[in-house]
Amino acid sequence: MDISTQHTDAAPPTPRPGPDARTRTSRGASRTGDRIFLGLSRGSGILLLVIMAAIAVFLAYRASLAISKDHGSFLTTFEWNTNILPPQFGIAVLAFGTVVSSVIAMALAVPVAVGIALFLTHYAPRRLSGPIAYVIDLLAAVPSIVYGLWGALVLVPHLSGLYGWLDHYFGWTGVLSWQGGAARSLLTVGILLAIMILPIITNVSREVFRQVPRMHEEAALALGATRWEVVRMSVLPFGRSGVISASMLGLGRALGETMAVATVLSPTFDIKASLLDPGGGTFAQNIASKFNEATEFGQDALIASGLVLFVITLIVNGAARMIINRRKEYSGANA
Amino acid sequence: MAKRIDVSGLTAYYGSHKAIEDISMTVEPRSVTAFIGPSGCGKSTFLRTLNRMHEVTPGGRVEGKVLLDDEDLYGTGVDPVSVRREVGMVFQRPNPFPTMSIFDNVAAGLRLNGTHRKSELNDIVERSLKGANLWNEVKDRLNKPGSGLSGGQQQRLCIARAIAVEPKVLLMDEPCSALDPISTLAIEDLIGELKERFTIVIVTHNMQQAARVSDRTAFFNLSAVGQPGRLIEIDDTERIFSNPSVQATEDYISGRFG
Amino acid sequence: MTTPAVTDKSAGSLHGARLPKWFPVAAVAGSLVVAVAIGLGAGLQSRVQWGLIAAVLAVLSTYVVAARVEGRRQARDRIATSLVWVCFLVAVIPLASLIWATVKRGVKVLDGYFLSHSMAGVADTQPGGGIYHALLGTLEQVGLATLIAVPIGVLTAIYLVEYGRGRLARAVTFFVDVMTGIPSIVAGLFVLSFWILILQMGYSGFAGSLALSILMMPVVVRSTEEMLKLVPNELREASLALGVPKWRTILKVVLPTSIGGIVTGVMLAIARITGETAPVLLLVWGTNFINTNPFQDPQGSLPLYIYQQYANSSGSGAAYDRAWAAALTLIAFVMILNLVARGIARWKAPKTGR
């Protein structure tokens, strides 16, 4: 690197291969500058990868410290006692609660979100759809703790009527029986999570539906299809993979949601047959609620459960991204 | 079962913009009528008013009358969905349903209308593909996706899809503009055969094509950019191309503008 | 020419029996009346149930009537339309309720005193106190997180758009996407494991900033990337053809062209991390006192304040009031950031020659 040529504008053009060869001015400076700049930006990219790797490594390390001393089975123990000797803790209850509440959230949110996305792209009067989409964007920005506060103080009291009704007619199933008391159960959590992930699923689905080529819709229309038939023949097949990945992004959110669950759920460390009775727990909620009184060992145990959550969300999000990316290539090839 | 179209005083808008103004014409059954004219003169818009596809465009609206054998398409109580069943359409770019097989593409309209018996579907799909001169090329791969065909084949697939529901009229919006000359020839031959059964209206930019395939030709023009398009004249194709009664038509055909 | 009379007589194939235009409105109104009647008659207390009954009735009655009058296909079209509307309404109700509840209950104690005082010496169940310490803590933590995340995020985006080819770029792209989905509590646990448990640093605002910056980076990368991609290649080529080196082209041409969008993205990212509670709970710990130093000792934090007022309230109205007021402050902050960001985006949108 020749620093002395930094300001000599008329450096003689010597033919040299490489991307810098086209610049006649201050080659030395530009090469240094380019090299530093490339180094910085590439370094940032690498740093991101390092952070991802570090998250996995540090969590795994601390988790291994805890799991090696666990006298229960980490996967199947129905207890979370890190302060007794020997400690016994396991994630069975948390895994159950996390999966159940997320599945409920998905079952409620995905159809409604697809409905809203269709509403915005194909049904709503055009004057309405713009502002509504804007409001949905804003709602995606509402902090989860606010959803939690609202869930605990507004939603929970409003659900007891519905739960009483469910218990009355479907209590015999066991799954929907209710003993009364506050509706701080996994079903409530599922409902709240559904409300929280609605905006993101709606937004991604809406984008996909909006990209449906007009000519596919017109093909259906010209055959004498009703609006619903157009949606079924052209819009939904085109948007299917987009909706799937949108749902998985929503699922990732639901799995990892902490504060809304921690405020609404009244946790117990067992698995209840009924979704309406208070009890159960999720990974994230358990970490938030147990953290304050945890010893260092207890924190490691919580980290171990966090690692499981990390791996699960990694798989879900990775799968969602792969579907999106494959779709991009597919539509790119046809463009 | 082809039907006659009688248009009177038809004006179409996009929002507040008037796209075409006061068009009246008659399209004879079992004939090919070609619409020609410079870009933006509203011939495609007019075509789309003939099966109420214009109102699908946001802000699209129509005034006037379009009679299909005495029945006004824009009369009260008329269902645009049934209009489009009667008046089929083929688009500029071939648009088979990308997720459906060749068979399902042709059967799509039939299924909408409640035909679900497999044997019946098989018959009609075969007949329609034969009618579109595509049967021999695809009969061994009916279950393959329609998007795997060549552009010309896709367009004939779309024609097969349109004629499978036995419309009375077939509208074609520049059906060959995205195709190579050989595919274009195949479609032109097909149009010649189809006019035995259907009333055909075709928009084209290609005047030789209009001269080759059509019995009657309508010339559209607009007086200035931003002004609505108008029908200048409609006459037998031979007359339009040899001895048009309006000077503008002759100028356009002889290449003096447009 | 035919006369209208002839047209009417030949009610041909184009005329399906159609329900009048006011039918959907009537169906909804009728269902509402019946649902209220059922609700009152059966003594159902929850309005939510009334609404659900009304929705079910509206959809069913539409289907039955339409199927009889118009036929199955039209009926299905109508049921789809009504279901889509129901979806929309079902979603609007909780969201509207959330805003309404926060505003209504939040304004009770939200005033100048509340914004300018800490909770020092105020027991959880007593009235009084404020959010000054929490507001301060949140601003410092978010500010530090922004300082860490924005340079890394923007540089990474520059790498991906301007230099990125090959496997490294693909890996970064993929993991940025995956990183977007990391639960905030996991980011908190990560910083906990290495910063507090291994390096033995104490709980502090800065520890929280580290976790928040991890959550912020992928958002910044993604939005900056999108903005840089919008810069037309002709601009870059024009600059390079003048002999300007690439790095100066990026700094002087590419970034200024897209700065509006980048700022918008950063502000949206800030809005997102401002509401994050879980990592703050694990790393900042929280305090009732004013601590202006983010690098030492626990700090307050606005989202954490909401959680603690709620969780430690033992049902006291005063604590709930404070929680709602803090929630309103937080929402207002986030919404203002959002609105301003979108305003900037509209105002300084890159000229893409549309």
Task: Describe, in plain words, how this protein is organized in 3D.
The complex is a heterotrimer of chains A (335), B (258) and C (354). Chain A is an all-alpha fold and 335 residues long. Helix content of chain A is 70%, strand content 1%. Chain A folds into 2 domains: 3-67; 80-334, Orthogonal Bundle (MetI-like fold). Chain A has a two-stranded antiparallel ribbon. In chain A, helix 5 packs across helix 7. Chain B is α/β, with parallel strands linked by helices and 258 residues long. Chain B has a domain at 5-96 and 170-253: 3-Layer(aba) Sandwich (Rossmann fold). Chain B has helices spanning 43-49, 80-86, 102-112, 118-131, 135-138, 151-164, 181-194, 207-213, 237-242, 247-253; strands spanning 5-14, 17-27, 32-36, 60-68, 71-72, 87-90, 169-173, 199-203, 216-222, 229-236. Chain B has a 6-stranded mixed β-sheet, with helices on both faces. The longest helix of chain B has 14 residues, at 118-131. The radius of gyration of chain B is 18 Å and the shape is globular. The N and C termini of chain B lie far apart (37 Å). The mean pLDDT of chain B is 90. Chain C has 354 residues and is mainly α. Chain C folds into 2 domains: 18-105, no CATH class; 132-347, MetI-like fold (Orthogonal Bundle), CATH 1.10.3720.10. Chain C contains 14 helices and no strands. Chain C is flat and about 70 Å long. The relative contact order of chain C is 0.11. Residues 1-11 of chain C have low confidence and may be disordered. The chains are: A mainly alpha (335), B alpha/beta (258), C mainly alpha (354). At the A-C interface, helix 1, helix 2, helix 3, helix 4 and helix 5 of A face helix 3, helix 4, helix 6, helix 7 and helix 8 of C. Chain A: Pfam families: BPD_transp_1 (PF00528). Chain A: InterPro entries: MetI-like, MetI-like_sf, Phosphate_PstC, Phosphate_Transport_Permease. Chain A: Part of the binding-protein-dependent transport system for phosphate; probably responsible for the translocation of the substrate across the membrane. Chain A: The chain crosses the membrane at residues 45-67, 87-120, 132-156, 176-201, 301-320.
